[in-house]
Amino acid sequence: MAIQSIDIFNVMVFQRQFYLDFCSGINVLIGENGVGKTTILKMIYAATQWSNEKTNPGKTKQLTDFFSNSLKDSSILKNAGRREENCYYKVSDGEHVFENHLPQNAVFNFDDWLGLNIPSVFIPSMEMLSHSKGFLAMNQKYTMPFDGTQTDIIVNASLPETREVSKLCGVLLKEISDAIEGVVVQENDIFYVMKNDGTKVDFSLEAEGLRKLGLLWKLIRNGLLEKGTILLWDEPEANLNPELYPLVVNVLLGLQKNGVQVFIATHSYNFAKYLEIRREKKEQVMFYNLYKAKDAIFCISAYKMEDLGKNPIMSADDQLLDEVYGL
User: Fold this and answer.
1) Of 303, 277, 275, whose CA–CA distance to 289 is shortest?
2) Cα torsion angle, 205, 210, 216, 221, sign
3) Going residue by residue through the chain (327 aa), what tens digit of pLDDT does each one get?
4) Which of 1, 3, 189, 324 could serve as a FRET partner for 228 with CA atoms 20 to 30 Å apart?
């Protein structure tokens, strides 16, 4: 099952109706800060969480929980500059629609959406596994300054490893393991990288870029990135040495071939371009350039970066080249 579209009106930066169709492969959101890239990822993630058949309607996380656990009323996400009471977002898989009207805290099509059991993983831009010791227990007892995506990723990484992974996932695990020179283990709520030479490195002492790869290894090894899963990743390039971009891109393309639908938000032209040039079919990867004009958010979609029109990550590279060559 793949997410096919999202429809947003009057939520945060989306003052006017905003609609996007997605591909079933890798969806790459680009744009300057503040145009709603992360918001879109979190809305999709929230919708997939509602689809779980074990969800208790009285305890289900609201959209606010994925922005801050201190926000109690989802109507606060309503755009303050608009007076309309209509404030919603809709996520569809082509056959079913999840519709959340924020001011009324009302979810529509709940019975139809509940039970779809859409597995999903959200990787936030902030690295979390180095904070894992006692985190989940503390988070249940106290109001911690972390949102639902940040707590969920610790939960997902802490799950037991599957006995077997698919052949393709085994290949991806080997590639990541070679890069981090070991595997990831968890002992007493603490994550470590068990190096090939037998040394055990506390996750907090590992280079942050390698921690990101270690998290990816753990999610694959735990069987969470198998066919039918939705992977949402906010800024995969953050704290990652550019020489590792091709590795992460190859992993994402491999997961897509294995039936994982991917959504990423990135500010890196090089990372996005690697996805374009390394795909085998253009339909594997779709690009979306979000931009603001006349106090509204618009989007240009294309299979090639060059067809996105003027966009910030390409413009930044052009500006750098102009300065290098004194133009």
Assistant:
1) 303
2) negative
3) 799 999 999 998 998 899 999 999 999 999 999 999 999 999 999 999 999 866 555 556 778 888 877 766 676 777 666 656 788 999 999 999 999 988 777 888 888 898 899 999 999 998 888 888 877 767 666 666 788 899 999 999 999 999 888 899 999 999 999 999 999 999 988 999 999 999 999 999 999 999 999 999 999 999 999 999 999 999 999 999 999 999 999 999 999 999 999 999 999 999 999 999 999 998 999 999 999 998 899 999 999 999 998 887 877 777 877 788 876
4) 189
If residue 137 lies in a helix (H) or strand (E), which one and from where to where?
helix 135-141
Q: Is the pTM above the cut of 0.70?
A: yes
What is the residue type of 285? V
Q: For residues 225 and 255, is the Cβ–Cβ distance under 8 A?
A: yes
**What stretches of 51-198 adopt beta strand conformation (E)?**
88-92, 97-101, 106-108, 120-123, 182-187, 190-195
List, in sequence order, every residue forming a beta bridge with 98; answer none if it has no partner. 91
Q: Where are the beta strands (DSSP E) in 109-239?
A: 120-123, 182-187, 190-195, 200-202, 230-234
Long-range pairs for 133-140 at CB < 8 Å and ≥24 separation?
133/188, 133/189, 133/190, 134/189, 135/189, 136/189
Rounded CA-CA distance 123/260 in Å is 14
CA 102 – CA 107 distance, rounded (Å): 8
Identify residue 108 by its one-letter amino acid code: F
Rounded distance between C-alpha atoms, residue 72 and residue 57, angstroms = 16
Query: Per DSSP, what are the bridge partners of residue 108?
Result: 99
* Contact present, 46 and 40 (Cβ < 8 Å): no
Using the structure block, give the residue that is written with the tokens 């201190």. 70
The CA-atom distances, in angstroms, between 225 and each of 63, 95, 170 are 23, 23, 12
Could you identify the residue written with the tokens 């006995």?
163
Q: Which residue bears the tokens 């870029």?
A: 209
The CA R_g of the chain, rounded to the nearest whole Å, is 20
- Altogether, the residues listed in the chain come to a count of 327
